[in-house]
Specification:
Rossmann fold, Argininosuccinate synthetase, chain A, domain 2, 2 domains, five-stranded parallel sheet, about 20% strand, elongated, disordered N terminus, arginine biosynthesis, AS_cat/multimer_dom_body
Length: about 425
């Protein structure tokens, strides 16, 4: 619980505000508890919801400074694409759709706080999840002396009943479906949607079809495959079927193609940074297509050892992003290495999308390291001397032969 002195010190706070029930309650709670001015910031990251109602709700609470911003292009260009250059998967499966959105929201909150002279920022993440860590690590990295208010760790509104009572007491509009227990919670942006909690808490029970927001079931997808091409420049996708597109437009189109073909569903039990395991249902249709396409173009443009080094670093990079350390020196160092590897990752990938599957059927690049003269089973015209393999094998077998000899003579391996 924040001390009264701390609360008196807060004059103006920038709240990450969605306009939903929770953040509307937080807005009013901040005004009453801290007796401070609240500035709201609502970001359009492609969640698919109308944002003007959030502005009107903020006005209803007497908020003077209201920021509603379309950050979709920035989100994809400066956050999603850099992450995909690393082929990032957390715990081998999760494409980090929620994790990658938090640093951008936090960065804009801090920038707005500077613009309006606010001395605090606030978020609506709970004390059990990862998002509180992601938001606050970003805040402190960008503004070390900022005051952070996390209402879920302070207030006594610890149940849905208390939350609704507070809302009604303070004339906060509550839609009818919010009066009961929500079957699960949803977070969405242009990269993905995630569903967690309530109905989904038992990992042994399959999710019902109503859970899925961004994809049709693979078995309901068309019986005919969809074929597309994706063009890459320096590791980033720039065109679909030869049509150049902005980052957000391209990801939007891939999402549409993925949805139509039942691509991108994931039922995952993951290890949260705060220590518990949690079960989530994730949908990342466009990202799933992009991952396969990017790996495919890298397969012909990256040197073997460069690719293997990059792949070995990916799990560490994924953990850094998952844990909310986007603005850390280690992320910047790894990003520089990853980006340096992408200069030659140019070309076109051909894909077949079919009932939940993304299948690469061709790849070509002006920077291709694939040489048919070397790999052919026909006459290679002297491009590769097969006799050289004997010495190569003998040298690589030397330690194995020595070990075997020691083993035959009674030694241990």
């Amino acid at each position: 619980m924040g001390s009264p002195a701390t609360r008196r010190d807060v004059k103006k706070v920038v709240l990450a505000y969605s306009g939903g029930l929770d953040t509307s309650v937080i807005l009013r709670w901040l005004q009453k508890t801290y007796n401070c001015e609240v500035v709201t910031f609502t970001a359009d990251l492609g969640q698919g919801e109308e944002l003007e109602p959030a502005r009107k709700k903020a006005e209803m609470f007497g908020v003077k400074d209201i920021f509603v911003e379309d950050l979709r292009e920035t989100f994809v260009k400066d956050y999603v694409f850099p992450m995909f250059r690393a082929n990032t998967l957390y715990e081998g499966q999760y494409l980090l759709g929620t994790s990658i959105a938090r640093p951008l929201i936090a960065q804009r909150q801090i920038e707005i706080a500077r613009e309006v002279g606010a001395d605090a920022v606030a978020h609506g993440a709970t004390g059990k999840g990862n998002d509180q860590v992601r938001f606050e690590l970003a805040y402190y990295a960008l503004q070390p002396d900022i005051t952070v208010i996390a209402p879920w760790r302070e207030w006594d509104l610890t149940s849905r009943t208390r939350l609704l009572s507070f809302a009604e007491e303070n004339q906060i509009p509550v839609t009818k479906d919010k009066r009961g227990e929500a079957p699960f919670s949803v977070d969405a942006n242009l990269l993905h949607s995630s569903s967690e909690g309530k109905l989904l808490e038992d990992p042994a029970v399959a999710p019902e079809e109503i859970v899925f927001q961004r994809t049709i079931a693979p078995e309901d997808a068309p019986d005919k495959a969809t074929e597309i091409t994706i063009d890459f420049v320096s590791g980033d996708p720039v065109a679909i079927n030869g049509v150049a597109m902005s980052p957000a437009t391209l990801l939007t189109r891939l999402n549409e193609l993925g949805k139509q073909n039942g691509i991108g569903r994931l039922d995952l039990v993951e290890n949260r940074f705060v220590g518990m395991k949690s079960r989530g249902i994730y949908e990342t249709p466009g990202g799933t297509i992009l991952l396969t396409a990017h790996r495919s173009i890298e397969s012909i443009t990256l040197d073997r050892e460069a690719m293997h080094l990059k792949d070995s670093l990916m799990p560490r990079y994924a953990s850094i992003l998952y844990n909310g350390l986007w603005f850390s020196p280690e992320r910047r160092m790894l990003q520089a290495l990853i980006d340096a590897s992408q200069h030659s990752v140019n070309g076109r990938v051909r894909l077949k999308l079919y009932k939940g599957n993304v299948i690469c059927t061709g790849r070509e690049s002006p920077n291709s390291l694939y040489d048919t003269r070397v790999v052919t089973f026909e006459d290679d015209e002297g491009a590769y001397n097969q006799e050289d393999a004997q010495g190569f094998i003998k040298l690589n077998a030397l330690r194995l032969r020595l070990g075997a000899q020691i083993g035959r003579n009674g030694g241990t391996l």
